[in-house]
């Protein structure tokens, strides 16, 4: 049985540096001397693609080297499960994680690298009033505990004032390592969206070009929110969303395109279907219902293009004024005979759109071409709205902040417990446009929980089960701050800690309940598992002389006091690279609890005492359970090293399990 220590890779978050070296070694083995890189050989292998120039295009700032290194440093933390704060723990596939997102992103690497379809973040905009994550390059886990009041040093919260000499530097040092880690999570067809305003737009664009590659830049979306009356020169009322692909060439090679529903089409189709049930084939009455809807749409409304579909038949609204000209001119000039008059039709000025006469008549048979009353009118293309309801998303959008505030306060019985939440419909439209069934969506600046709420809504609409992972720092509310006073008092009445993460969780609970009530025909996932960032459950060794004797005494039990079997299991799941939402089943064998993870990937027994007399029953139970699952030879078993009554009990357990093919045995 292999006894694990905290320094071993099995009990650490992903070592990204070691992983990168392994990948590089597989590509250029001749550039390595044992585990060291021979950069001269590597340069020769790369040929002309080496940039040795001291001056190069990019963005540099004080602390960038350390920020890059911070992303590569493994985390010393873990995520502890909180079933009591979760919703539908046993069935949900969603996660709400409370903690510093830098540490959390590190911890998620093994389980979720290359598995995320969409990342949306709305980081602090660096307006001078924003909370800024104050990272510590030496020990960020300790820094997190101090910052959130979990150590005796108390709370350490900072704002990034414009008077600071490191105004942009501090913000870039915060965002850079988080984006580096986020990139690893994306699938090859994945996309990341970053909300930002003018304060850091130029800096974040160059930074994203560096991390993701300028070739993977897809668009800058502009969201017109609301005008501000406090401007000196111009009333700036818009924000930006920068969109990058993980691998744009993969999207191109795989012929992946993004399309979204035209605004208002879903509602109109529902209206048409109801009107058709009511009026049968009376197209005049059905048209009246449709046109009543059109009248409610102003010319500036995003739904205004629907009003071009002025004709109605059994296929729904349509238009038959489409141009049938060959694009660019000099198209085919074959003769088309009018089906009624029998005479050749007038040619379009640039020739027919379709390359052959046969293709023209194929489109006609499909109902895609409409002839005029006689041959003097050039035929036109017919477009059925419900058959062409998807479109490319435009880069400019209109959305009002007040709408989002009202939506949010409605969930909280009219109380404005959160300042400036993002509009649900905006995020929902991005989720619909960029993700599909069962895709995983991540937001590691979760704030009020808009992303999770949006996933619930879009899933209910599509009858699917996209998943989400939200991460939010438990940033404390200040009751002396007017904007935070309502939230502070709300948490006080709820009896919860007074921080933003509590609002995030409560918003998800209320939103999930409402979405379920509003969509009784959808039985989807409205739950979430709550985990909280903390130090590892396994006591680390510290090499200082004064603490060595204390550690030797304490190391009789390597598990930190107060940690549960569920805490230990969650840490192993995370550091073995298994999804945190997998099924865990427990059984009792001779009074000893055994957990089985994800159909037999892991078996654990973290009971504090394993008597020698129980070994036979315990091993038989594990062996029979393993065989019934047909889990294979890769199963790993974990026990507490000091739980065995004696070495004989431990040796016998190992021998019996190994005899039946369970050879990956570890103790903590």
UniProtKB/TrEMBL annotation:
Per UniProt, the keywords (alphabetical) are: Methyltransferase, S-adenosyl-L-methionine, Transferase
Q: What are the recorded Gene Ontology BP terms? A: methylation
- InterPro entries attached to this UniProt entry: DNA_methylase_N4/N6, DNA_methylase_N6_adenine_CS, N4/N6-MTase_EcoPI_Mod-like, SAM-dependent_MTases_sf
What does the record give under GO molecular function? methyltransferase activity
Q: What is its EC number?
A: 2.1.1.72
**Entry superkingdom:** Bacteria
The chemistry this enzyme catalyses reads: a 2'-deoxyadenosine in DNA + S-adenosyl-L-methionine = an N(6)-methyl-2'-deoxyadenosine in DNA + S-adenosyl-L-homocysteine + H(+)
The segment(s) forming the DNA methylase N-4/N-6 domain are 116-455
Q: Which family does it belong to?
A: Belongs to the N(4)/N(6)-methyltransferase family.
Name of the protein this chain belongs to:
site-specific DNA-methyltransferase (adenine-specific)
Provenance organism: Enterobacter roggenkampii
Q: What is the lineage of its organism?
A: Bacteria, Pseudomonadati, Pseudomonadota, Gammaproteobacteria, Enterobacterales
């Amino acid at each position: 049985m292999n006894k694990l220590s905290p320094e071993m890779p099995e009990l650490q978050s992903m070592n990204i540096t070691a992983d990168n070296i392994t990948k590089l070694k597989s590509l250029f083995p001749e550039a390595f001397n044992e585990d060291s890189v021979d950069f001269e050989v590597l340069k020769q292998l790369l040929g002309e693609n080496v940039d040795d120039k001291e001056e190069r295009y990019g963005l540099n700032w004080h602390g960038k080297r350390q920020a890059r290194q911070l992303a590569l440093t493994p985390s010393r933390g873990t995520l502890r499960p909180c079933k009591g704060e979760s919703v539908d723990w046993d069935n949900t596939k969603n996660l709400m994680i409370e903690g510093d997102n830098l540490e959390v992103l590190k911890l998620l690497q093994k389980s979720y690298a290359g598995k995320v379809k969409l990342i949306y973040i709305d980081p602090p905009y660096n307006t001078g009033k924003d909370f800024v994550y104050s990272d510590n390059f030496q020990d960020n886990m300790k820094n997190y505990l101090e910052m959130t009041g979990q150590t005796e040093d108390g709370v350490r919260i900072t704002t990034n004032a414009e008077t600071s000499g490191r105004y942009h530097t501090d913000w870039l040092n915060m965002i850079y390592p988080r984006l580096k880690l986020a990139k690893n999570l994306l699938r090859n067809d994945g996309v990341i969206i970053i909300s930002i305003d003018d304060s850091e737009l130029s800096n974040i664009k160059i930074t994203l070009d560096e991390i993701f590659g300028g070739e993977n830049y897809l668009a800058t979306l502009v969201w017109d929110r609301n005008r501000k009356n406090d401007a000196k020169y111009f009333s700036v009322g818009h924000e930006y969303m920068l969109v990058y692909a993980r691998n744009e060439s993969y999207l191109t090679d795989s012929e992946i395109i993004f399309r979204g529903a035209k605004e208002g089409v879903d509602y109109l189709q529902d209206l048409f279907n109801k009107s058709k049930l009511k009026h049968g084939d009376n197209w005049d009455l059905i048209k009246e219902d449709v046109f009543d809807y059109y009248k409610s749409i102003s010319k500036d409304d995003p739904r205004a293009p629907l009003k071009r579909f002025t004709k109605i038949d059994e296929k729904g609204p349509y238009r038959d004024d489409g141009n049938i000209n060959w694009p660019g001119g000099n198209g085919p000039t074959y003769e088309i005979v009018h089906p009624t008059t029998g005479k050749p039709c007038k040619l379009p000025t640039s020739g027919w759109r379709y390359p052959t006469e046969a293709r023209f008549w194929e489109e006609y048979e499909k109902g895609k071409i409409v002839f005029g009353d006689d041959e003097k009118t050039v035929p036109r293309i017919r477009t059925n709205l419900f058959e062409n309801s998807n479109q490319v998303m435009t880069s400019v959008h209109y959305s009002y902040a007040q709408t989002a505030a009202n939506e949010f306060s409605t969930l909280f019985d009219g109380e404005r417990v959160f300042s400036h939440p993002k509009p649900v419909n905006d995020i929902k439209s991005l989720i619909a446009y960029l993700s599909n069934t069962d895709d995983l969506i991540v937001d590691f600046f979760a704030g009020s929980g808009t992303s999770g709420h949006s996933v619930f809504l879009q899933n209910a609409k599509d009858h699917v089960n996209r998943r989400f992972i939200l991460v939010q720092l438990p940033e404390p509310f200040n009751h002396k701050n007017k904007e935070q006073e309502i939230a502070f008092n709300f948490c006080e009445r709820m009896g919860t800690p007074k921080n933003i993460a509590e609002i995030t969780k409560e918003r998800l609970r209320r939103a999930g309940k409402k979405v379920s009530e509003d969509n009784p025909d959808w039985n989807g996932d409205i739950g979430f598992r709550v985990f909280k960032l903390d130090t590892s459950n396994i006591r680390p060794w510290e090499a200082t002389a004064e603490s060595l004797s204390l550690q030797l005494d304490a190391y009789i039990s390597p598990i930190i006091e107060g940690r549960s079997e569920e805490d230990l299991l969650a840490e192993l799941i995370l550091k073995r690279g298994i999804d945190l939402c997998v099924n865990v089943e427990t059984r009792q064998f001779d009074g000893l609890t055994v957990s089985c993870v994800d159909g037999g990937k892991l078996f654990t027994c973290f009971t504090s005492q394993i008597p020698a007399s129980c070994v036979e029953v315990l091993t038989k139970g594990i062996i029979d359970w393993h065989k019934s699952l047909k889990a294979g030879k890769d199963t790993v078993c974990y026990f507490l090293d000091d739980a065995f009554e004696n070495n004989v009990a431990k040796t016998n357990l190992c021998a019996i399990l190994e005899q039946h093919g369970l050879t990956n045995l570890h103790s903590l």
